[in-house]
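Appendix B, record 7
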Amino acid sequence: MLRTLFPRITLLTLILLLSACASTRVEPPALAPAPTQFKEDGLWKRAAATSATTTPVPDAWWQLYNDPVLDDLQARLVIGNENLKAAVAQVAAARAAISASRAAELPVLSANPSASRSGAPAGSTGQRSTSTSLSLGATASWEIDLWGRLSQATSGAEARYQASLDDLAAARLSAQATLVQTYLSMRSAEAQASLLERSVAGYQRSLDLTQTRYNAGVVARTDVLQAQTQLKGAQAQIIEAQTQRAQLEHAVAVLLGQPPSALMIARTAVLPESPGVPMLLPATLLERRPDIAAAERRVAAAYSQIGVADAAFFPALSLSASGGFRGSSLSNLLNASSLYWSLGSALAQTIFDGGARRAASDQARAAADAATAAYRQLVLTALQEVEDNLVVADQLRAEGQLQREVLQLAQRTLEIVTEQYRAGTVSYLNVVTAQSTVLSSEQSVLSVRNRELAAINQLLKNIAGRWQDK
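Structure tokens (predicted):
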């Protein structure tokens, strides 16, 4: 019996394997290509360009700002940030899903020992009968992956796992960029408060001068009131800047996974220098963006799911085997006469399901189309983000130079008007106007510098922290 059964099973298996030439694998389409370089690169080309190459940005890309405090905060970020911990857990779950998919491709073996004792009612003899049944057996089953359903499910799980790794990298990059921006805004608020404190000191000197001239009967009471109004207004702005700075420090603490009360950052009121942007930025830098890589992997996973859904249209082949010993006592349980076994194969094919398989296939294709469109849109959005920030950074650099020139002119005007007021040739209103212009110009210079740093930080995030495609 055994000799005749094995050839039949083998022949059936070979026939089915040879008929498996109709693959259910569906390949994803070609995804959106990127241009060779960014449109707005021309903004960064110098008139006398050289052949010198820039140094690649290190993995710790924020070190371009040369700020030891920021370096320390970034080191603490990757340890304490709760969003990153959640992303790490998602990676672990995706890794476990791969193991589960691979396990489905392997045979399943199980052992089933059993023991029972039963009694029967008394018969004509008036005596009850009892019996013992012992069994020691094992069963094995294996689904032959004729149509690639299991292998494509594994491929999809592997793609989703890689996507989760890319998601983790994207979350880390986003958290790092958010920390940089929050830190820069905090330093900007400190610089704003320092600027206002210097202005308050100057306004106090002007008030003292005006009060002296009023006491001497040289000027009217309105000059004193104007000086006091200007002083109080600047003092109120200092409180606002200090409040903003405190809130930003709290935001940094939360990014580090700490309560706000646990973090104290020493005040410096100094913004770091702007990193220099290279002359050219290749558009292939976008290929290194982890969120784009994750979207591409999701496209691959979606197309693997099409193969899984289409495999349901074909029959499933399973091989099974069981064997063991069965007896009434332990002493003769392992005897050859107690041996039993069975081998078999089974084909399962759904005849009618009310269109469920077709619906599942259509759903998988729609999901793949959606994943492809989402990927392409992400690439387009990424290109726009880089182009936008190239424009913004370049324009802010030019605007900053003009604002510094405006500040120099305003400071010179204030010096002249102050001397004229001392000589009594102009009213104090002229001094107030000149002082307000100087303060406004200094605030504009600070604001432009902060926005330029923010644009460069966003640009670094957009290209995954690297200037060069290396």
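Remarks on this record: Residues 356-423 form the longest helix (68 residues). The chain has a mean pLDDT of 83.
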